[in-house]
Write a structure and sequence with these properties.
150 residues; alpha/beta; four-stranded parallel sheet; two-stranded antiparallel ribbon; globular
């Protein structure tokens, strides 16, 4: 009797590509969800949840993202300094003015599973506020987010 064997991809066998995603006029949450799926490698036919199969992802034009509803004024990011009474908050509007790449990074980080693997995946995501990036030598391919995702 012949046994069936499952294929388990090894981390050294992964062929990593460079992908560009343009964030201009894209909704923040939908963009983050799509990039998180790309980062995990869920589009690959040999996807395995416990193996790092991520590609290098370049997100450009993060300063031109959109949000829906009243999130610009009603959504806040909080952090604590560690001192008594040290809870700090910043609105989404102010955070976008200060550093829009950080807003997109936090949205993508929230869409990934919270474990050691996601910390490895986040190292392969590059975010840029404008349309210029220094990764031309890697010959990245431009990917347009499908309209069904928006």
């Amino acid at each position: 009797m012949k046994k069936q064997k499952s294929y388990y991809p090894k981390p050294l066998e992964v062929d990593r590509k460079w992908i560009i995603v343009d964030a201009q006029d894209k909704i923040l949450g939908r963009l983050a969800s799509y990039v998180a799926g790309l980062a995990r490698g869920k589009y690959r036919p040999d996807f395995t949840p416990s193996v790092d199969q991520s590609d290098f992802i370049i997100v450009i034009n993060t300063d031109k993202i959109c949000v829906t509803g009243k999130k610009l004024t009603d959504k806040f990011y909080y952090h604590h300094t560690g001192y008594p009474g040290g809870l700090k908050s910043i609105s989404l509007r102010d955070s976008l003015k200060k550093d829009s790449a950080k807003v997109v990074y936090e949205a993508i980080r929230g869409m990934l599973p919270h474990n050691k693997l996601s910390r490895q995946l986040l190292k392969r995501i590059r975010l840029y506020r404008g349309s210029e990036h220094p990764h031309v030598a890697q010959m990245p391919t431009q990917i347009e987010i499908p309209s069904k995702e928006l």
